[in-house]
Amino acid sequence: MRPRLPDVPFIRRTLVLARAEVLHVVRDRATLVQIIMLPLVQLLVLSNATTFAIRQTPIWVVDQDRSSVSRGLVSRLGASGYFRVEGASATPEPANDAMLRGRATLVLTIPSDFARELVRRGVDAVHLDVNAEKGSAAGVVQSYAAQIIAS
Q1: pLDDT digits (tens, 9 = 90+) for 37-62
Q2: In 3-state terms, what secondary structure has residue 108?
Q3: Which residue spans within 14-116 are E strands per DSSP?
Q4: Cβ contacts of residue 150 below 8 Å, gap of 6+?
Q5: How many CB atoms are located within 10 Å of the residue 44 CB?
Q6: How far is 49 from 57, CA to CA, in rounded Å?
């Protein structure tokens, strides 16, 4: 079965209506300015708001290992430019408080045997807690942190 082409009167009516609207917009200077300027202003103003680049995200570190390896990991996160270390503690209570008060977006927990397991097995796990109030930003923060930690 062949596709049915639109009726010629329908196309003619649509073209006449489109021509009338274009003439109306061209004759009215205020409408013409709005049609051209508003999208340009929105593009200039809102282009910075739509970026997913995360910079200086506040993090809290729970360092239960307190080794040079764990301090190196923390300094690598801080030096990346994506994260700013807000505070550090040996217990999770201050980190939980910072997360609840909005002073930290990410909590990095380094276990007590981190350096030993890293030397012994070549890998070890750390724990990341991300504040997911801003969903897309939380995903980007987690991705950045995971990439830095994995490297």
Answers
A1: 999 988 888 876 666 677 899 999 99
A2: strand
A3: 57-63, 83-89, 106-110
A4: none
A5: 9
A6: 16
